[in-house]
From TrEMBL:
One of its GO terms (molecular function) is hydrolase activity. It comes from Lentibacillus halophilus. It comes from the Bacteria. PROSITE patterns: COF_2. This is Cof-type HAD-IIB family hydrolase. Keywords: Hydrolase. It holds the Pfam family Hydrolase_3. NCBIfam families: Cof-subfamily, HAD-SF-IIB.
Length: 259
């Protein structure tokens, strides 16, 4: 069998509702790897938030931070930090609306406020065991690949009007991802595919969130999880079962990657 690249979102695709990887998904990843395929993460998370998962699944290739930081076998093949002047502008706008921000590097995260209930509720849902640092000026001295803006549903509309050069993608009731308008998991995947020189027929992608839509639309062999919103399902070539119902394993069988 010719080598394939299989890209897996984490939350809601690999992780079930309890933030655990079902045993069927673990076995599927191992079987794909044993067959010589490249199994990679395609996630909005920063690398430091899934290091333990990398070790557990022996996966060292990933498209992270919604396409802004791409690694193949532990070597960085693409990175695109946000410009400091853009973050300056975003900081001022968010401060006026009393909306906190978190700045994500590839190996750490920094908040511009010491405490806020929106941050608490959103970040707690990720179950990340990593202390968040307080440093409102981090973006001036370190590379920021993605920001997290904390505002209630609908609050991002004002930002979308004010920042046409940024993309605001909601992932929680109280938070949205902030990346360049021209960026997405799809652009990061393009960089990885160019590096690997693989044909489009050999690329597969699985996802469930709004930040997966560009990926599912651009990858020829794409599958949405059964737990995905209808808009995401429409962006994919196929739809599998809910993640809690061995959805990833069933999806891999649907596209012929597993027997």
């Amino acid at each position: 069998m010719e080598q394939k690249l299989i890209l897996l979102d984490i939350d809601g695709t690999l992780f079930n509702d309890e933030k655990h990887v079902p045993e069927s998904a673990r076995q599927a990843v191992a079987e794909l790897q044993q067959a010589g395929h490249i199994v990679a993460f395609a996630t909005g998370r920063a690398p430091f938030t899934f290091k333990k998962l990398q070790q557990e699944l022996d996966m060292n290739t990933y498209v992270s931070l919604n396409g802004q930081y791409v690694v193949y076998r532990d070597d960085v093949v693409y990175q695109r930090p946000l410009h400091m002047d853009v973050l300056d502008e975003l900081e001022r706008h968010a401060d006026a609306g009393d909306h906190p921000l978190i700045y994500l590097g590839h190996d750490n995260w920094f908040s511009n406020t010491t405490h806020h209930p929106y941050i608490q509720k959103a970040i707690d849902s990720l179950k990340i065991k990593r202390e968040m640092m307080y440093d409102p000026a981090f973006y001036r001295v370190g590379d920021v690949y993605q920001a997290l803006l904390f505002c209630p549903h609908g609050g991002e509309a004002d930002y979308k009007r004010a920042f046409d050069h940024l993309e605001f993608i909601r992932w929680h009731d109280y938070s949205v991802d902030v990346i360049p308008a021209s960026a997405s998991k799809a652009t990061g995947i393009d960089q990885l595919v160019q590096h690997l020189q693989l044909p489009s027929d050999h690329i597969y992608a699985f996802g469930d969130g709004l930040n997966d839509m560009a990926m599912l639309q651009s990858v020829k062999n794409s599958v949405a999880m059964g737990n995905a919103p209808d808009t995401v399902k429409k962006a994919a070539g196929a739809v599998t079962r809910h993640v809690n119902d061995d959805g990833l394993w069933h999806g891999l069988r649907m596209v012929g990657l597993l027997k």
